[in-house]
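Sorry to interrupt, but I need a hand with the structure work. It will help me judge whether the discrete encoding reads sensibly. Write everything out right here, beneath this request:
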Amino acid sequence: GTNFLSLDDVNYFFGGVDGEARVLSEDDKQRFNSLIEDGGLVFVNASASVFSFGINVSEDVGAIAFAVQDIAGAKLYFPQAFTDFALNGNTVGKTFNLDDTYVKAWWIRNYSLSYARNLIESTSSSFDRLTVGVTGKIIHGFSYIGTDRVNSNVTTGSSHEITGNTDFRGYSAFSSAFGVQYDFDTVKQHSSWGVFPSPAGNGFGVDFGIAAIAGNWGFSAAITDIGKINWNKNTAVFSSFGEIYLDDISNQEQMDSLEQRITGDSKKINNFVTGLPTALRIGTSYQFNEGVVPGSLLLAFDYDQGFNDLPGNTKYPTISFGTEWKPMNWIPYIRTGISYNTEFGVNWGVGLGIDISFVELHFATSDMQSFVLLNQSKRISISFGSRWKIN
């Protein structure tokens, strides 16, 4: 999805008219610029739990779990200066600042081992349960592309001369299975796919969590994905630094210099390090007693705070209110709620849970409004999960 273009907007600006490209009027240009006034984000996230297994050994010993999860994601953020320049050209006396631009994309796999245990007996405390848990993750990174620094600007002077500065650096790494070949490579690369491709980076991460139950109330807090990945296979750095000047497009030396500043240099490096999508998560819930409402009803509130802009994460805090209701034994769990953050505003989530003795099936979307008002939607999400239970 995006944070600025609805499906209607995409069809209007990029869908054409009667098979021909649309010629934008001045009003169209102003409207498009107003849509991206605060910058534009385009993203995609996908994850799959390849395998997971958990067992509650006993109340004294605790529970252990193992999981393998693949995560892929990409984020592209660009300031309004890009579209302003594309739509209106290099207006005399105007400076186009590109400092906020960034690109980040990766594919990683987590091998996770978790342990959790209840610490208290309900008779000796005001809490019925106080559980702590920790997860250790061995991480294989298969690909990464990301900017590390963008400090660039361009100005058109009164005599139509173009001046500016560029200061850019980005990194990339790819598993040998991709067969990616850089310009500076002299050895031919070949792709070789498999279920377990050779990693381009290795890392380690940790999750910590605590949960408590006191009567009908539940409380929880966690810090997830503390750690880093060291990328050390097929790694490269791309950089550009210097001043931009052009006042004569027929001057080949100036044109060559401009091309060099735009494209930059690339070279092989031994390694570079990225973090993980670290986040703080806090939640509380209330379980209504039977008889107050038909069936089982749970209300919940969550607060999530990410600490970086890696794929799947955001520095904007997200608050969520939700409910889970099971009116009768033969009716599935009905889940709904709303979430809000500055980047995407208010979103309506809906889910359904089916518990058939030995198996659970779960369906959900965090953007139900995208299905109800498809043409006005800016993003779409869907998830499915199943869990098999052995007593």
